[in-house]
Amino acid sequence: MTVAEPFNDVNDVDRIMEISAYNTDVTSLIHAVADNSDAIFTWNYDKGERAKLDKLYEKAKKSQWNAQTDLDWSIEVDPYTALGVLAEGGTEYFQAPEAPTAKFGDAEWREFAYQSFAWRMSQFIHGEQGALLCTAKIVETVPWIDAKYYAATQVVDEARHVEVFTKYQSEKIGTDYPVNPHLRLLLDDIINDSRWDMTYLGMQIMVEGLALAAFGFMQQFADDPLLKKMLRYVMSDEARHVAFGVLSLQEIYQDMTAAEIRERQEFTFEAALRMRDRFLQQEVWDRMGVPVRPTVEYILNGPPETKQFQAMLFSKIVPNCKKLGLLDAGDGWLRKRFEEIEVIQFEDWVDTGEEYESLDAVAADREAAAAG
Ligand SMILES: [Fe+2]
Ligand SMILES: [Fe+2]
Predict the structure, then answer these.
(1) Ligand with the closest atom to the CA of 138
(2) 345 CA distance to ligand 1 centroid (A)?
(3) Distance (Å) from CA 366 to ligand 1 centroid
(4) What's the CA-to-centroid distance between 331 and ligand 2, angstroms?
(5) How many angstroms does the Cα of residue 131 sit away from the middle of ligand 2?
(6) H-helix segments, the chain
(7) Which residues sit with Cβ closer than 5 angstroms to ligand 2, an ion?
(8) Residue boundaries of the structural domains of the chain
């Protein structure tokens, strides 16, 4: 299913609810998606022709870590408070008499903190599996040897991320959620697309850009040392992944026509909306016995301060889109859309082309250990 109609209203609740009904086979263990790309061989084996990708590949080989042995799994976790910010209960807006959650007391907010944490971890796992499949696809479809080498290291990284989050969830949380329909629709569309650069744009720039911001946010507010270290390590990998996207797309976008760039802008905005709508957490409200549709409407109509977390998720995506020229290409179509969903304020934040050096927690810990 591709939702192709133009966006007349970014807060169209009918549309959001329609997509929400899309994931009906939640009991099936297999989900097949048609992959329309050709697998590409290259006979040009000149390593280092793309120096920045080559550097990233060498870095990736050095900064590998082991989910089973590099974290202390003996740490006891209280999943109700592990993510401190969630445990603070409902804000004023959600306690107002007209709020669908008006009747929530401390017990309900405590349960919500737990369910929301479990939901987030589940969506990370599903998103990480999406990244695993997408990077395996990039190994096949990208025509440059330096990019094939690098993408192969990312396949290993993503396997580790699925592994490490699943271990945390099953051992420390104990509740899970099926893939969110907005996320699944996005992952399906990325894999479906026959153009190899769209895999990069959808996964490396959008999904991973959002993940990097979300992990950073959670890492900052986590009270559990195991969660904190796990996220630091995952982030050091993710920063390379986003850099891989920025560095590769910069080259290919240089030669594109205005019409081709416009298609990339539209794809970017569709992806942005699906990711925003995923964080409406419809499944959590449903599990908590709160009517979903009025809650979605209530959240979308909230004042700006209730949307800060959602907006923060775009703090890596928007500067990266600017660096790639997508923000202002043509008539600045994407800039206007990002203004509508209130995320344009991040345009001059640090982009992720080089940030991976400073986020390499794995290398930093090893240097510290070697220095004694
Ligand atoms: Fe990942
Ligand atoms: Fe990644």
Answers:
(1) 2
(2) 26
(3) 21
(4) 31
(5) 6
(6) 13-20, 51-62, 92-95, 106-141, 145-168, 181-192, 196-199, 208-221, 225-253, 258-278, 282-287, 292-300, 308-312, 317-323, 333-340, 361-370
(7) 131, 208, 238, 241
(8) 80-370
Q: How many CB atoms lie within 10 A of CB 149?
A: 18
Q: 27: Cβ–Cβ under 8 A, 6 or more apart, which residues?
A: none
Q: What's the CATH number for 80-370?
A: 1.20.1260.10
List per-residue pLDDT tens for the chain, 372 residues long. Answer: 344 444 567 778 887 887 776 666 667 788 999 999 999 999 999 999 999 999 999 999 999 999 999 999 999 999 998 887 665 556 788 889 999 999 999 899 999 999 999 999 999 999 999 999 999 999 999 999 999 999 999 999 999 999 999 999 999 999 999 999 999 999 999 999 999 999 999 999 999 999 999 999 888 888 899 999 999 999 999 999 999 999 999 999 999 999 999 999 999 999 998 888 888 899 999 999 999 999 999 988 888 777 777 788 899 999 999 999 999 998 999 999 999 988 999 999 888 776 788 888 898 898 899 987
